[in-house]
Amino acid sequence: MSERFRKECKTMVVSQPSIRCWTTKHVAKWLKEEGFSDYVDLLCNRHRLDGTSILTLTEYDLRSPPLELKVLGDIKRLMVSIRKLQKQNSDVLEELGYTYEGWLSGSGAHSPNSIQGSDWLYNGDPARDSDEPVASLSADQYHQYTNGKYKQHTRRLDPEYWKTILSSVYVVFVFGFTSFVMVIVHERVPDMQTYPPLPDIFLDSVPRIPWAFAMAEACGVILCNIWLLVLLLHKHRSILLRRLCSLMGTVFMLRCITMFVTSLSVPGQHLQCSGKLNSDMWAKLKRAVAIWSGFGMTLTGVHTCGDYMFSGHTVVLTMLNFFVTEYTPRSWNFIHTLSWVLNLFGIFFILAAHEHYSIDVFIAFYITTRLFLYYHTLANTRAYQQSRRARIWFPMFSFFECNVNGPVPNEYCWPFSKPSILKRLIG
Fold first, then answer.
1. Cα(196)–Cα(270) distance, integer angstroms
2. Lower CB count within 10 Å: N or C terminus of the chain?
3. What angle (nearest 5°) sits at the alpha carbon of residue 236, between those of residues 233 and 242?
């Protein structure tokens, strides 16, 4: 508090102090006078609201964490009392950089210049990242009313780059560990003469296409390039990359377990799967590095056997497809259609090449889609914040998503400063 405010508070100690001088005790007294004694402990003791804080409180603050008032009538009555307080202290609001113009009579709308329309709506986080003045937006552009809560169309999301780095380290470690497990599994592959391919309806009905697996990997490369372009231009690219790394790492860690515990016979006689017996650990590590550096793709010269349950190629194709369709606008029908075509054709080519059993591909598609949908449902609804069980069962999810409240909006921006040619063209 500045020296001027201290002097002002001392001179007004005998009379009613200015709201700028209110402590939590004054706020508690005001709440009791207004008939909100039940909320004194929550607002004053636990969250230490003083005069300035209570003056800038909004209805969204009351509804959202950490306050989360549940009784609608109390929320409305408390906001009425706060608005009276704001009106009585409009000069203080102006000194704080806000103006109070009141609410439109008979409606729930408010002026975009009012305290409710300011950038205090998100618990102190600025409502917009752009340099446009707040007054240039209409009230309808600020909020939509969904499930009883005011939601804001645009809000500031902390990129939390350090978490993104951690998730990247996690997925790199998992890919390295997967490569090593693939080396171990390859040495344990069942003998083709003793254990012939298992019966499979699709593989028995569709003749093998020799070039199909290369086409499946080509579909994956195209999907990967589309995703990288979306990621590069997306405003919240750090959150997207963090989610991709955490999901991809988790699915491939599960794949390590499934392909290690059970070794299936090769799905086709065309596969040259005699065990590569690496005599020492150093030879195994060198082979694992070769698989890891080649991304496990035959296009880069990597050939492995035994890693059948379940299909890693299907995981990558499906995960990239879902991320592309989730983080592009719904109106981008061409991109969505192309993404799904590449995903489905890639899966068909995997089966047509007789590189995996049908059950491998089905389980990979099912696990990938379920994990993606569960993850984003929890993140978008913030259900884990109210569920102790969810935080226990999904600790990594809770860690990565604890500061991302609600869906990530699909907003795009140029990742770097404008090139000189673009500056000349568009200013």
1. 12
2. C
3. 110
CA distance 65 to 129: 22
CA count, 13 A, side-chain hemisphere, 146: 9
In angstroms, the CA 57 to CA 22 distance is 15
Residue 371 CA to chain centroid, in angstroms?
13
Cα distance between residue 170 and residue 247, in whole Å: 10
Q: How far apart are CA 117 and CA 110, in angstroms?
A: 7
For 93-111, letters b (16+ CB in 10 Å) and e give beebebebeebeeeeebbb
What sign has the CA pseudo-torsion 213, 263, 207, 345? negative
Residues tagged active-site: 313, 356, 360
Nearest of 407, 421, 344 to residue 144 by alpha carbon: 407
Q: Give yes or no for a contact between 290 and 185, defined as CB atoms under 8 angstroms apart.
A: no
CA distances from 190 to 201, 239, 250, 329 (A): 21, 42, 27, 47
Residue 19: count other Cβ atoms within 10 Å of its Cβ.
20
Q: Identify residue 131 by its one-letter amino acid code.
A: D
Q: How far is CA 168 from the centre of its chain?
A: 14
Q: Is the pLDDT of residue 359 over 60?
A: yes
Q: What is the pLDDT of residues 16-73, one digit of tens each?
A: 678 888 898 989 999 999 999 888 888 998 888 888 888 888 888 898 888 888 889 8
